[in-house]
Amino acid sequence: MGPSAAEALALESPAVRSAGSRVVTDQDLLYLRSRQIIVPVAGVSAAGISSSFDEVRGGTRKHNAIDILAPRGTPVLSADDGTLAKIDTSAGGGLSLYVADPRERFIYYYAHLDGFRRGLREGMSLSKGDTIGFVGTTGNAPPNTPHLHFAIALADEDRRWWKGTPLDPLPLLRERDRR
Prior knowledge:
Structural class: alpha+beta
Largest sheet: 9 strands, antiparallel
CATH superfamily: Glucose Permease (Domain IIA)
Strand content: 25-35%
Low-confidence stretches: 1-20
Order of helices and strands: HHEEEEEEEEEEEH
Number of helices: 3
CATH architecture: Distorted Sandwich
Shape: globular
Radius of gyration: 15 Å
Distance between the termini: 26 Å
CATH topology: Glucose Permease (Domain IIA)
């Protein structure tokens, strides 16, 4: 007897798993794959994105995200349907957005934006592919390297937008491109 559907999916992309405060289950991965998230930068394919999830940044911290390079001002798209949980500005992420998937199981983080789409407000519903902002270099991004810092985290039990177990988005994006 072969592996279950969830086991088979987990075996296909083991790089999707990551250590953190909450264990990522096969059911979590199955659900996330069912969302069929899209590359969140207009005109960029997953094949053109370099892996940077495991890189060390600032000398001590793991990146826990991917950087999607594109010209400044390129539209940033909602990778999935969901709810805009937080519009934020910080020293590290600069102009950034946190979006919860429809079940508030995963949080998508978009950082270093050059600006936000007009009319965005916390609590609003977003559809996959909606323009939510524009590629930039705000926060601690190198000024001559416009990119989107994109992260996915399994939400913690309290569903806090700023906490969760990070997962590498790149295998999910590449898997979708192969379909």
